[in-house]
Automatic annotation (TrEMBL):
EC number of the protein: 2.4.1.1
InterPro entries in alphabetical order: Glycg_phsphrylas (IPR011833), Glyco_trans_35 (IPR000811), Pyridoxal_P_attach_site (IPR035090)
GO molecular function: glycogen phosphorylase activity; pyridoxal phosphate binding
Enzyme class: transferase
Known cofactor(s): pyridoxal 5'-phosphate
Record PTM N6-(pyridoxal phosphate)lysine, positions in chain: 675
Name the record gives this protein: Alpha-1,4 glucan phosphorylase
GO biological process: glycogen catabolic process
UniProt entry keywords in alphabetical sequence: Carbohydrate metabolism, Glycogen metabolism, Glycosyltransferase, Plasmid, Pyridoxal phosphate, Transferase
Any Gene Ontology CC annotation: cytoplasm
One Pfam family recorded for the sequence: Phosphorylase
UniProt record similarity statement: Belongs to the glycogen phosphorylase family.
Keyword Cytoplasm: no
Length: 832
C-alpha cells in the first residue's frame, strides 16, 4: 500500500474546527451558528442548530478531504470513476458522525446547548437523487470505496428536484415536488471553476487539417455549461474522504439569435428550454424508460462533463493521453451513462486527434458495464430521429463503431446475417433505434450482472450473442449493501449486542458475524436478541401511529414489503394473501392464529397506472381490515407513506419477515433483501435475484421458499399461461378475487379495481395467480414457525450470522480485483 506524507497540517488539533471532543464540537457549533448561519443562539431555530452542527461535522471532514485530493493528485495511481445517473445517498449527518466516530460527543455537545441530537438528525432533508435500488447501490458503493481506501469519484447529476415526496390522500398516491435544496445543503461545495461545455444539436462538418488528416467538427446549435457540485464521501474510521461530483447545468446564453434569425424559432426555444431544465428533475421511473429527449440530454450532459473532467485531471498530472486507461477505470451503472462509449471516442478522436484504433483500445480498456435489468421494457433504446437531432456527432461515431463491429461479426460468422441484425447497435426491426446495452457491451472490457442468476440469464438471453463472441468479458458481481448505514447507524441496539458478542470488527469485516452461530441456541442470548427486535418494533409502531394514525401492536409479527411498487415485485400477491387470511379469520373467529401486522411502503412511478392501483388496493384492504373490530389484536395492514432512505432506517431493523416475492427471473438482485437479512428478518421469497444466494448462505431451513423457478416461469409462458386454471382449482382464490371485483375494498365501487382483476385473470406477465397457492401455503409455514419463539429466534440469529457475503465491501473488493485492478491508497494525516 502506497503512503505519502501529507505536508498540510490540520488546523491546530484543539481548534473548534478539528478537535473531536465534545467541548470543541460545542465551540464549533456556536462558531458556525454565528459565522455561517448568522444567528444568535437565543433565537436560533432547530434547523439553524442542525445547520451549525452539520457545518461543524463537515469542518472535521475537510482536512481529510483535502488530504485525499492532494494524495490522489500527487501519486501515480488509478482512480475508479463510478458513473451513475442516480445516487440515493440518504441523510448525511448521522452517517458522517458514525464514520468519524464522534456520535456520542456530538450528542453531549448538543445537549450542553439544550438541543437533542435525534431531533436535529430528523430535520435533515434527504437528497432524493435516485429512484430506488440502483441509486442506493451506487451510494453503498461510495461508502465501501472510501472505507476500503480506494481512490474513486462518483459522477452523476445534481437534480434540483429529486424523487417526488409521496403522500397518501383517500388511499391514493399523490406526488409532491421534492424541494430538497430549499433550506440549503451544508454538505455541498460548488466549484464554479470546475466547469465544462457540452454541445447539443446542430450538425457535424468533415474536413482535412494541415497535416492532411480527416477531421470532423461538430457545429452545435447550443452549448450548456456543467458546473461541479461536490459532496465529501468519508470512509469509516479512515482518512479517505472521496468525492461525489454531481453536475448542475447552466445556460450560457439566454437566446440563440442565429437560430432565431434563420427562422427556426421552435428549435431555438426548444434548445434553450433544454439548457435551463437539464438538471432540474430526476425522471421518476424505476424500471421502464421514459424515452424522453430531455432524459437523453441529461445522460449525455453528465457523461460528457465527467469524461472532460478526467481528461483535465490527466493533463494536470502531465500524463499523455495514451495513459488514460492506466489512470482511470470507468464503471457504467446500467446503460444510463453508456453514451460514454461514443463520447470518450469523440473526445479522443475529434478533440485530441488520437487515431481511431488507439482511441478504441483506450475506450474499451477504460470502460466496464454493469447490467441491472432483463425486463424488455427497461432496456434502453433511442429512436434515430431524436438521437440525431440532439447528438448528431456522437451518432456518427456510433455508426462507425457499428460498421467496424459488424465487420468483425461477419468475419467470425460468415453468412449469418440474422446474427448481424441481432447484434447491431441499430435495431432495424421497426422504427430504427440505438441499442444502448449493445453500445455498452461493445465498448467495455467487462460486463457484469448483479447476482448469479441474473448474470447467467444475461448471458443466455439479452446479451447471448455477445457472450458467445466474448465469453471472457462476462462475469458476475453480486450486489451488496453497507453495514455502516444499514446496521451500525440504523440499528444501534443490534450493533452494541454484536459488539459485545463478536467484537467491533464486524463493521468492516461482516464475515465475522459467523461467530454468532455459536449463540443461536443460547437462551439468554436469544432473549437479548428478541429485546433488541422488540425495541425496534416499538419505535416503528410509534412512527406508524404518528404518521398513519393506525395503532399497531409491537408483539405482532411484522411482515414487511418495502420497495418500489411494481407488478414484477408483486405487492398484489401479498395483498391477495392478506385478503385470504382475513377471510379465514372471519370464518373462524376463535382459531388460534398468529397476530400479524402487514406493512407496505414504496413509490409508484407517476405514470404507472397499475402500480398506483396496487397502492389503492393495499390502502383499501387496510381500511376494511383495520376497521373490523373482530380483527383487533389479530390483523393490521399499514401503508407507510414516502418510503425513502430516511424512513428505511427504522423500517428494516423492525422487520420479522422480509417479503421478496418477485416473479422468478425478474428481479436482477434486490438489495432490500440483504438489508432485512442483516437485521435479523427471515425471508419469504422466490428463487429470484440474490434471494437464491441469501438462501444458500442462510441455509434452506432458515428461509421460506415458494413459487415457480425462473425456468418454470419460462416454460409456463412458452406453453401459454392460463390464469383461469388456477382460479378454477382454488375456492379461496375465487373468493378473494370476487371480493375485490365486488367493490369490497373500494366502498362498493366495482369499477376501481377492474383493470387490476382483469389483468390478473387475462394478461398478467408476472404469473401472480400461478404462485398464489404455494405462497399461501408458505405463509402458513411462517405462522407456525412464529409460534415457536425459540425456533424463530434461532433462525433470525442465523440469518444475521450468515449475512456477511452481502456487505458492499465484499462487492467492491470484487470489482477492484476482477474488473478495475486497483488497490487501496492510505491517506496520511499529519496532525503536526
Ligand atoms: C434498498 C432500497 C431500495 C431497494 O429495495 P429492493 O427491495 O431491493 O427493491 C429501494 N429504496 C430504498 C430507499 C432503499 O433503501
Amino acid at each position: 500500500m502506497a503512503t505519502v506524507a501529507f505536508p498540510t497540517k490540520l488546523p491546530g488539533t484543539d481548534s473548534a474546527r478539528s478537535a473531536m471532543d465534545a467541548d470543541a464540537l460545542r465551540r464549533g457549533v456556536l462558531d458556525n451558528l454565528i459565522c455561517l448561519q448568522a444567528r444568535p443562539p437565543a433565537i436560533a431555530t432547530p434547523h439553524d442548530w442542525y445547520m451549525a452542527l452539520a457545518y461543524s461535522v463537515r469542518d472535521r471532514m475537510l482536512a481529510r478531504w483535502a488530504a485525499t485530493i492532494q494524495t490522489y493528485a500527487a501519486q501515480e495511481l488509478r482512480v475508479a470513476c463510478y458513473l451513475s445517473a442516480e445516487f440515493l445517498i440518504g441523510p448525511q449527518l448521522g452517517n458522517n458522525l458514525v464514520n468519524l466516530g464522534i456520535e456520542d460527543n456530538a450528542r453531549a455537545a448538543m445537549q450542553s446547548l439544550g438541543q437533542d441530537l435525534d431531533s436535529l438528525l430528523a430535520l435533515e432533508e434527504e437528497p432524493g437523487l435516485g429512484n430506488g435500488g440502483l441509486g442506493r447501490l451506487a451510494a453503498c458503493y461510495l461508502d465501501s470505496l472510501a472505507t476500503l481506501e480506494i481512490p474513486s469519484v462518483g459522477y452523476g447529476i445534481r437534480y434540483e428536484f429529486g424523487i417526488f415526496d409521496q403522500e397518501i390522500h383517500n388511499g391514493c398516491q399523490v406526488e409532491v415536488t421534492d424541494k430538497w435544496l430549499q433550506k440549503g445543503n451544508p454538505w455541498e461545495i460548488v466549484r464554479p471553476n470546475v466547469a465544462y461545455y457540452v454541445a447539443f444539436g446542430g450538425h457535424a462538418e468533415s474536413g482535412v487539417d494541415e497535416q492532411g488528416r480527416y477531421t470532423v467538427r461538430w457545429m452545435p446549435a447550443r452549448m450548456v455549461k456543467g458546473v461541479a457540485c461536490d459532496t465529501p464521501m468519508l470512509g469509516f474510521r479512515v482518512n479517505t474522504c472521496n468525492t461525489l461530483r454531481l453536475w448542475k447545468s447552466e445556460a450560457i446564453e439566454s437566446f440563440d439569435l442565429q437560430d432565431f434569425n434563420a427562422g427556426d424559432y421552435y428549435q431555438a426555444v426548444q434548445e434553450k428550454v433544454i439548457s435551463e431544465t437539464l438538471s432540474k428533475v430526476l425522471y421518476p421511473n424505476d424500471e421502464p424508460e421514459a424515452g424522453k429527449r430531455l432524459r437523453l440530454a441529461q445522460q449525455y450532459f453528465f457523461v460528457s462533463c465527467s469524461l472532460q473532467d478526467m481528461l483535465r485531471l490527466l493533463d494536470l498530472k502531465g500524463e499523455p493521453i495514451a495513459r488514460f486507461a492506466d489512470m482511470f477505470t470507468v464503471q457504467l451503472n446500467d446503460t444510463h451513462p453508456s453514451i460514454a462509449v461514443a463520447e470518450l471516442m469523440r473526445l479522443l478522436v475529434d478533440v485530441r486527434s488520437v487515431p481511431w484504433d488507439d482511441a478504441w483500445a483506450t475506450t474499451c480498456r477504460a470502460l466496464a458495464y454493469t447490467n441491472h435489468t432483463l425486463l424488455p421494457e427497461a432496456l434502453e433504446t433511442w429512436g434515430l430521429p431524436l438521437f440525431s437531432s440532439l447528438l448528431p456527432r456522437p451518432l456518427e461515431i456510433i455508426y462507425e463503431i457499428n460498421r467496424r463491429f459488424l465487420e468483425l461479426v461477419r468475419r467470425k460468422y460468415p453468412g449469418d446475417e440474422a446474427r448481424v441484425a441481432r447484434m447491431s447497435l441499430i435495431d432495424e426491426s421497426g422504427e430504427k433505434r440505438v441499442r444502448m446495452a449493445h453500445l455498452s457491451t461493445i465498448g467495455s472490457h467487462a460486463v457484469n450482472g448483479v447476482a448469479q442468476l441474473h448474470s447467467t440469464l444475461l448471458r443466455q438471453t439479452v446479451l447471448r450473442d455477445f457472450a458467445e463472441l466474448w465469453p471472457e468479458r462476462f462475469l458476475n458481481v453480486t450486489n451488496g449493501v453497507t453495514p455502516r448505514r444499514f446496521m451500525l447507524l440504523s440499528n444501534p441496539g443490534l450493533a452494541s449486542l454484536l459488539d459485545e458478542t463478536v467484537g467491533k470488527g464486524w463493521v468492516t469485516d461482516l464475515t465475522r458475524l459467523r461467530t454468532l452461530e455459536a449463540f443461536a441456541d443460547n437462551l439468554a442470548f436469544q432473549q437479548k436478541w428478541r429485546d433488541v427486535k422488540l425495541a425496534n418494533k416499538k419505535m416503528l409502531a410509534e412512527r406508524i401511529g404518528h404518521v398513519t394514525r393506525i395503532a399497531v401492536d409491537p408483539d405482532a409479527l411484522f411482515d414487511i414489503q418495502v420497495k418500489r411498487i411494481h407488478e414484477y415485485k408483486r405487492q398484489h400477491l401479498n395483498a391477495l394473501y392478506i385478503i385470504t387470511l382475513y377471510q379465514r379469520l372471519r370464518r373462524n373467529i376463535e382459531q388460534g392464529v398468529v397476530p400479524r401486522c402487514f406493512i407496505f411502503g414504496g413509490k409508484a412511478a407517476p405514470g404507472y397506472a397499475m402500480a398506483k392501483l396496487m397502492i389503492r388496493l393495499i390502502t383499501g384492504i387496510a381500511e376494511v381490515v383495520n376497521n373490523d373490530a373482530s380483527m383487533k389484536g389479530r390483523l393490521k395492514v399499514v401503508f407507510y407513506p414516502d418510503f425513502n432512505v430516511k424512513n428505511a432506517h427504522f423500517i428494516y431493523p423492525a422487520a420479522d419477515l422480509s417479503e421478496q416475492i418477485s416473479t422468478a427471473g425478474k428481479e436482477a438482485s434486490g438489495t432490500g433483501n440483504m438489508k432485512f437479512m442483516m437485521n435479523g428478518a427471515l425471508t419469504i421469497g422466490t428463487l429470484d435475484g440474490a434471494n437464491i444466494e441469501i438462501r444458500d448462505e442462510a441455509g434452506s431451513d432458515n428461509f421460506f421458499l415458494f413459487g415457480l423457478t425462473a425456468s418454470q416461469v419460462d416454460s409456463v409462458k412458452r406453453e401459454g399461461y392460463r390464469p383461469a386454471v388456477h382460479v378454477e382449482r382454488n375456492e379461496e382464490l375465487r373468493e378473494t378475487l370476487g371480493l375485490i371485483a365486488d367493490g369490497y375494498f373500494s366502498r362498493g365501487d366495482r369499477q376501481v379495481f377492474r383493470p387490476l382483476v382483469d389483468n390478473l385473470l387475462n394478461a398478467d406477465p408476472f404469473l401472480v395467480l400461478a404462485d398464489y397457492a404455494d405462497y399461501v401455503a408458505c405463509q402458513e409455514r411462517v405462522s407456525s414457525a412464529w409460534q415457536d419463539p425459540v425456533r424463530w429466534t434461532r433462525m433470525s440469529i442465523l440469518n444475521t450470522a450468515r449475512s456477511g457475503k452481502f456487505s458492499s465491501d465484499r462487492a467492491i473488493g470484487e470489482y477492484c480485483e476482477r474488473i478495475w485492478t486497483i488497490s487501496p491508497v492510505r491517506i496520511a494525516l499529519d496532525r503536526g
